[in-house]
Amino acid sequence: MKVIPIYAEAGISGFESPAAEYKELGLSLDQLIIKHPNATFIGQASGHSMKGVGIFDGDILIVDRSLTARNGDVVVANYNGCFVCKLIDKAQARLLSASADFAPVSITPEDEFSLEGVVTRSIRLHHQSPELAACML
Amino acid sequence: MYALVDAVSFYASAEKVFDPSIRNKPVVVLTNNDGCICAVCPIARRLGIPKFIPYFKIKSFLHKHGVVIRSSNYELYADLSDRMMNVIGRFCDNQYIYSIDESFLYFDQYDSVVENWHHYGHKIRQAVWKETRLPVGVGFGTTPTLSKAANHAAKKMLGFNGVAVIDNEQNKHEILHRMDVENVWGIGRKITKKLKLKGINTAAQLAQQDPKQIRKQFSVVTERTVNELNGISCLSWDEVQSPKKEVFSTRSFGQRITNKEALRAALVSHVTIVGRKIRRQSSLVKKLLIFGSNSPHDDLYYKQAIVYPFVISTDNTCEMANAVSRVIDSIYKDGIRFYRCGVGAIELENKQFLQPDLFIPDHYNGKLMECLDGVNHRYGDGALQIATEGHQPKWQMRREYLSPQFTSQWRDIPKISC
């Protein structure tokens, strides 16, 4: 994000704003939600099968490749040439949805399958974002 | 111990990171303007597709075999390169990034830390693959040139699985005697020809030459290469990264150009690129080569190149743009359909040693250039530009098979099915 920093000045007297020396204290969302920047990518959820864990159509997904998925984690996988977001059932080699409308999918040796990362955060956009508008169509 | 870590056909591999549908398909990447093939993924290599072949010559073959074609997506490659270099940098405290996909590591007094270089190499490979989904090859050697040779073995020779180590006479010989001399770092095409005439065909044979003799017949650079092959380090980081002696910016046009103003705009935009590059390495240009041509495949080949000497060396883009304006009438010719143009800073000087001229006061406008670079760095190239560059996108790159900007544009982030 490119921000043009214009700092508040106190009046016209020429005295520096007493707040000026605190200007470095802004919070960074990256710091909060991205632990491993080199291994993290950002994607967008498309579909309704993960409602049960609070991931809705159009949500932003933060995917960390450096983590090893544990059983039951929300993961992103390459399933037959497609990125999918599911719950991983390691014991039975299945991909589970978080919605009663979608049945579990078993991973067979014929399938092209690889884990791509663990979904560590998801972001709900309650107002439409102009940057992402093209994706919503 | 030195290591060279680099990506396996970086551009093609980068295309696969965010597009799982092409992970197991043959992929090739085209150069600027979709002219030539510049990267071939290992699967495509098995089909026998050579590098640097013009795209139009092999188009139907690619189509027949279902090869995926991509234009160069520099925004994506730059981002993935950053990530890859950061992951590699975790494994050594002395990293030198040599190019977009190559990185040297220097391990000083690591013997007590690293027990087995083979294992360490595989650890690097696995980490880069896991975190960035880019495949890399790792070569260890006791000199930079040997690490480069080991890297070549790791990626190209049978029996090495992405990692090779040269740390004793035996494994050194094993690799060097299987390595063609043309693949040795620093041995160019011309030197290869001469060496082969003398019966020196492999890297091992080159290593056996008397360095003094090689110096006489070739140069000090080749002598160093021989010493490096024998485990004597001659290259230091500073030399590896010494400033370029020439800086070029040149490109063929997406569409032919037939008017003077458009040609000038294209040349000025090349000047902008050259100016930025030479300022980055603190050089000044003394002589600027400015040229334009139609295609060698045209009926009558036309090429005009002019060397413009500056009275006082400069790194000021405005002055270089003025040089273009002064020579444009000599380069442009009515009726020629220009296909290619460019500029090259062919004689460079170190900024430190600039001799100011008593009679041309204050010609050096460093502040303005600093501002120009600063603004363009922050808001993207072209945010601030020279007016003569114009705003015609006509000469810009043709990128017909461009993949999305997965990591640099919100509208292009990967879609994940739920």
Account of the protein in words:
With 137 residues, chain A is mainly beta. Chain A contains two helices and seven strands; from the N terminus they run H-E-E-E-E-E-E-E-H. Chain A has helices at residues 29-33, 133-136, and strands spanning 40-46, 60-64, 74-79, 82-89, 94-96, 105-106, 113-123. In chain A, strands 1-2-7-3-4-5-6 form a seven-stranded antiparallel beta sheet, with no helix packed on it. The model of chain A has no long low-confidence stretch (mean pLDDT 85). With 418 residues, chain B is of the alpha+beta class. Helices cover 38% and strands 21% of the residues of chain B. Chain B has 15 helices and 13 strands. Chain B has helices at 10-17, 42-45, 55-64, 74-89, 117-132, 144-156, 169-176, 189-197, 203-207, 211-217, 220-229, 237-240, 260-280, 317-331, 366-379; strands at 2-7, 27-30, 37-40, 68-71, 95-99, 102-106, 136-141, 163-166, 247-257, 283-293, 303-314, 338-350, 415-417. A five-stranded mixed beta sheet of chain B has the order 5-6-1-7-8. In chain B, strands 9-12-10-11 form a four-stranded antiparallel beta sheet, with helices on one face. In chain B, strands 3-2-4 form a three-stranded mixed beta sheet, sandwiched between helices. In chain B, 37% of the residues are buried. Chain A binds chain B through residues 2, 36-39, 41-50, 55, 57, 60-61, 63, 65-66, 76, 78, 81-86, 97, 112, 116, 129, 131-135, and chain B through 18, 20-24, 82-83, 86-87, 130-133, 378-379, 406-407, 410-411, 413-418.
